[in-house]
Amino acid sequence: xxxxxxxxxxxxxxxxxxxxxxxxETIQRLLR
Length: 32
Description:
It contains one helix and no strands. The chain has one helix spanning 13-31. By secondary structure, the protein is mainly alpha-helical. The chain has one domain. The protein is 59% helix and 0% strand. The radius of gyration is 11 Å and the shape is elongated. The model has no long low-confidence stretch (mean pLDDT 89). The protein starts with 12 loop residues before the first helix and ends with a helix.
């Protein structure tokens, strides 16, 4: 599985990481 996001100058690294993890968890739940 792959999930990613766009990084901007205003991005917060921790928030981007959490968002990516959330995307992957959603996909994983759907595939179970």
